[in-house]
From TrEMBL, chain A:
This is Glycine--tRNA ligase alpha subunit. Belongs to the class-II aminoacyl-tRNA synthetase family. Keywords: Aminoacyl-tRNA synthetase, ATP-binding, Cytoplasm, Ligase, Nucleotide-binding, Protein biosynthesis. PANTHER family: GLYCINE--TRNA LIGASE, CHLOROPLASTIC_MITOCHONDRIAL 2 (PTHR30075:SF2), GLYCYL-TRNA SYNTHETASE (PTHR30075). GO terms for cellular component: cytosol. One of its GO terms (molecular function) is glycine-tRNA ligase activity. It catalyses: tRNA(Gly) + glycine + ATP = glycyl-tRNA(Gly) + AMP + diphosphate. It is an enzyme of class 6 (ligase).
TrEMBL record, chain B:
NCBIfam families: glyS. This is Glycine--tRNA ligase beta subunit. It comes from Arboricoccus pini. Keywords: Aminoacyl-tRNA synthetase, ATP-binding, Cytoplasm, Ligase, Nucleotide-binding, Protein biosynthesis. The gene is glyS. It is found in: Cytoplasm.
């Protein structure tokens, strides 16, 4: 059970916060992965969560995932909102009995003292209509601020999770703003503020936020995006005929991001919106089903690959 | 006698589910114990915190009494296999068999089974796993490799009887005598065996068990914090209940709101604070929001809460910064500019866009203005045109619960007239029973139009509430119409405004049967009205009687009539007349069945043989006219007085006259007379559905 004795000092930079979380979860036996190399809206979409949450094998992993939400762009003018931000994602399957305590210890490792701050688990059921997934859990609040999402997956891709995975998602910018005590995301120290080439989050990302906001809202070619959506959808189906779950899932991710861009461009009416979400969900479900159905074969391939590597 | 203590210790249970679950657990347990002959001597108590459900059962018997149960077997002369099978089904060595004669002259086997009473402890250890498995949760989940469902992962079960552990297994756990204190302030294992030590030990471990006490502490300390600033706590009982379910050890803390944000509309501040952050608000003695908030922490912080306050102030600043941004942005555009975007905003997939809805409302207010005294049509149309424009504003996008309210502010900002501003702001009211009903004429018109359009559209598409499901809040919409009509004393012809609303949908609903829709909706209004008036002590059956006996669609008139009828039936005349009505109606319906025909023609005075018979015919004829006159004048007390005058002639008739006489024309005439009683009273209401008061 929880013994809140060791509370570290606070990480001084954004990257130090990430390194602390990686070190902490590596020490819990997690596979530390790198971000998935495709555009996704949240860490949950990484196949290390979506696909690995299915099936009976144990699976503990942690990774940073850049997340793109085109509609949240504010041209770099809003102190809290970004169209591109980072999530730190942890998935533990089966969910261990001390998952809440592990999570809290990870906050202690970031210098958050539970006897100085008000840490709370506030009801928040999670649902992803595009992934056909849902779970029960909480938002975790630190002094009234949501710093993480905590979910016990019940279904992914419409398939019951057995065993159940526990998913932790840390909103890294928010958490870092809290830890560093800054009020504007662009003021975050990205690397060591005492280093000769100290950089803020704004130095690294402000221009990208401005440019992508313009691209997402004004420039993206909607006709082309619609075409690419159709292509990804068709390609996903074709790959599934060859029973290749993860390559097919890549196409589902593409379709999902294309939909988000179209949404930001205002090219999808509210009525059509549901239909598009349904199309992405159908792809996600089919990929998840294939992942489960073709499991023994893909495992053999993974083993073969690692033997050569 | 032995006391039972049961605690289920889990991860955080949603606040809204805690007390219900504890209550359900106490009820299930009480029921199972009583059924097993183990009724407790005292009242079962239940408690909940975010992490535990606790039930205390005082004074259980040590064991069940021995019981003798009778079981019926096959006939004594049944084949040997059947008799042996019966014997085998009984517990060995604990029964006696007897033969009893049955009605058919044979004999049947009966077994008297001696059932040994079990020790309460043993009974509970087999009962509890099964009982916990059927505790209902609004939503439940599995975790880890387990298949058990609970609201969130369960961690420990404390169960003792008379201080001794009761051991059983549930959800992969073994019950024991231990639990834990506060998550951070007292996380160690506590061994607890009796309720007498349980409560104070938990308190020492920074857990206040009783939600009522936590609520009281939150309220009193928050009041003191407000008073400390020369202010007062804003009354918010619902939020206090919720807060009591969010903490085991409540510590209210006072924070400040930056003065720059105080220029935001109060509703924006309150929504940010209450809905998103669960902060209590503080106000001055005029009821104006003061620049403070109260957050309820779950710990006594080492620094007295300074860091927690600072953190919460930051969070609120960020939220209000967003709100200020929308407030500034939205006010740079006129509401009209949002209208084109409403064309792409769906009202409902089967009922078109919000743009179409605005056009319908703008037309429908025309039909409604005629019936709302003082309502100016041009103003009502202007209000209808702008009413939904705030749905595409930044602020309502962020805070959907501010719809209407923001529209009102933006309308004021762009110089709309006061009635228009007010109508836009109020047109979603009343939302719940605690909301006041709009009274300004233009507001009333718009609020009625909004709900009628919704009710007509959804009912026409066959989308109606069923059981507990009412996703579009149509019951609330109907109740809104009822309250708007009754509280403003409106003489609103519901049928014609329903038709006007349907007409407004145009080709979209052109295949709908308007007459059927009208009946459907009036029935729905009648049902809602019954629920609404039940609280005012208006009798259910009388409402049904008045509604069934009439094609009237004027709620004010119908209610006046129901109230007059209720007052009349409380008098001696009323009760006797009802008895006379029933007697008459009974005889007629029996004879109608016998003769396979209806008696509906007017009775013939020439065929009347007895004076009492003639008197009644005359009285009914006179009453018919005066009831008609009174109804036309809506003087229902006069109508009731007329009806009361029929009591004596009816009583006399039944005393002096025999109905079923051998002479067929005389008999038929008397039956017609009885049918005429039924018909006369039917003008007032359908007396056949009236029960005894």
């Amino acid at each position: 059970m929880l013994v809140p004795t060791v509370v570290s000092d606070r990480p001084a930079s954004f990257q130090d916060l990430i390194l602390r979380l990686q070190t902490f979860w590596a020490a819990q036996g997690c596979v530390i992965l790198q971000p998935y190399d495709m555009e996704v809206g949240a860490g949950t979409f990484h196949p290390a969560t979506t696909l690995r949450a299915l099936g009976p094998e144990s699976w503990n992993a942690a990774y940073v995932q850049p997340s793109r939400r085109p509609t949240d762009g504010r041209y770099g003018q809003n102190p809290n909102r970004l169209q591109h931000y980072y999530q730190f994602q942890v998935i533990l399957k089966p969910s261990p009995p001390d998952l809440q305590d592990l999570y809290l210890q990870s906050l202690f490792a970031l210098g958050i003292d539970p006897l100085m701050h008000d840490l709370r688990f506030v009801e928040d059921d999670w649902e992803s209509p595009t992934l056909g997934a849902w779970g029960l859990g909480w938002e975790v609040w630190c002094d009234g601020m949501e710093v993480s999402q905590f979910t016990y997956f019940q279904q992914v891709g419409g398939i019951d999770c057995r065993p159940v995975s526990g998913e932790l998602t840390y909103g890294l910018e928010r958490l870092a703003m809290y830890v560093q005590g800054v009020e504007r995301v662009y003021d975050l120290a990205f690397n060591d503020p005492a280093s000769p080439a100290a950089k803020t989050y704004g130095d690294v990302f402000l221009r990208a936020e401005q440019d992508y906001s313009a691209f997402n809202f004004e420039v993206a070619d909607t006709d082309m995006l619609f075409r690419h959506f159709e292509d990804a959808e068709a390609e996903c189906a074709r790959i599934l005929e060859r029973r290749l779950a993860q390559p097919a899932y890549d196409q589902c991710l593409k379709a999902s991001h294309l939909f988000n861009l179209l949404d930001a461009r205002g090219a999808i009416s509210v009525t059509e919106r549901q239909a598009f979400i349904g199309r992405v969900r159908n792809l996600a479900k089919a990929c998840c089903e294939m992942w489960v159905e073709a499991r023994p074969k893909s495992q053999v391939q993974v083993e073969g690959a690692s033997a050569r590597g | 006698m032995a006391d039972l203590l049961l605690e289920l210790f889990s991860e955080e249970i949603p606040a809204r589910m805690q007390m219900r679950a504890a209550q359900d657990l106490a009820e299930l347990l009480g029921q199972a114990l009583t059924e097993a002959g183990l009724a407790p001597a005292g009242e079962i108590r239940h408690y909940a915190t975010p992490r535990r459900l606790t039930v205390f059962v005082p004074g259980l018997p040590e064991r069940q009494a021995n019981r003798s149960i009778e079981r019926k077997g096959p006939r004594a002369d049944a084949p040997a296999a059947a008799r042996e099978g019966f014997l085998r089904s009984l517990p060995a060595g604990a029964f006696t068999i007897e033969e009893r004669a049955d009605k058919k002259g044979g004999a049947t086997l009966f077994a008297l089974v001696q059932e040994q009473g079990r020790a309460t402890r043993d009974f509970l250890s087999s009962l509890l796993p099964e009982l916990l498995g059927r505790l209902p949760w609004p939503k439940s989940m599995r975790w880890g490799k387990g298949e058990t469902r609970w609201v969130r992962p369960l961690h420990a079960i404390l169960c003792t009887l008379a201080g001794e552990t009761i051991t059983f297994g549930f959800a992969g756990l073994r019950s024991g005598p231990t639990t834990r204190g506060h998550r951070f302030m007292a996380p160690d294992v506590l061994e607890l065996r009796t309720f007498e030590t349980y409560v104070p030990t938990l308190r020492a471990a920074k857990v206040m068990l009783d939600p009522a006490e936590r609520r009281e502490v939150i309220e009193q300390r928050s009041k003191a914090l407000a008073v400390g600033q020369g202010l007062r706590l804003k009354h918010d009982p619902g939020l206090l209940d919720e807060l009591a379910g969010l903490v085991e050890w409540p510590v209210p803390l006072l924070g400040r709101i930056d003065s720059t944000f105080m220029q935001l509309p109060q509703e924006v501040l309150v929504t940010s604070m209450r809905e998103h952050q669960r902060y209590l608000a503080v106000e001055d003695d005029q009821g104006n929001l003061a620049p403070f908030f109260i957050t309820v922490a779950n710990i006594e912080a080492r620094d007295g809460g300074a860091a927690i306050i600072a953190g919460n102030e930051r969070v609120l600043r960020a939220r209000l910064w967003d709100a200020s941004f929308f407030w500034e942005q939205d006010r740079t555009r006129r509401l009209e500019q949002g209208l084109s975007r409403l064309e792409n905003t769906v009202f409902h997939a089967e009922l078109g866009s919000q743009g179409e809805r605005v056009r319908r409302l703008t037309r429908l207010v025309e039909a409604l203005c005629d019936h709302v005294p003082g309502a100016d049509l041009a103003l009502a149309q202007r209000a209808a045109q702008l009413a939904k424009a705030d749905l595409v504003s930044g602020m309502v996008g962020e805070f959907p619960e501010l719809q209407g309210i923001m529209g009102g502010y933006y309308a004021l900002e762009q110089g709309e007239s006061e009635p228009v501003v007010r109508a836009i702001a109020e047109h979603y009211l009343p939302k719940g029973p605690e909301d006041a009903c709009p009274t300004a004429p233009v507001s009333v018109v718009l609020a009625l139009a909004d709900r009628l359009d919704q009710l007509v559209g959804f009912f026409a598409r066959g989308i109606k509430p069923t059981g507990s499901k009412d996703p579009f809040a149509l019951r609330r919409a109907a109740l809104g119409v009822i309250r708007l009509v009754l509280e403003n004393g409106l003489r609103l012809p519901l049928r014609s405004v329903i038709q006007a609303s349907l007409f407004g949908y145009g080709r979209q609903l052109e295949t709908v049967d308007g007459k059927a829709l009208e009946e459907d909706l009036l029935g729905f209004f009648a049902d809602r009205l019954k629920v609404h008036l039940r609280n005012e002590g208006v009798r259910h059956d009388l409402l049904t009687a008045v509604f069934a006996g009439s094609a009237d669609d004027d709620l004010v008139r119908l209610i006046t009539k129901v109230k007059a009828l209720q007052a009349f039936l409380d008098t001696d005349d009323g009760r006797n007349l009802l008895a006379g009505y029933r007697r008459a109606a009974n005889i007629v319906s029996i004879e109608e069945k016998k003769d396979k025909r209806r008696f509906a023609d007017v009775p013939n005075a020439e065929l009347a043989r007895e004076p009492a018979e003639r008197r009644l015919i005359e009285s009914l004829a006179a009453a018919k006219l005066s009831i008609e006159r009174a109804e036309a004048l809506e003087d229902f007390n006069a109508a009731m007085a007329t009806v009361a005058g029929l009591r004596q002639p009816i009583d006399n008739f039944f005393q002096a006259v025999m109905v079923n006489v051998p002479d067929p024309p005389v008999r038929e005439n008397r039956l017609r007379l009885l049918a005429a009683i039924r018909a006369s009273l039917g003008r007032i209401a359908d007396f056949s559905v009236i029960g005894d008061s």
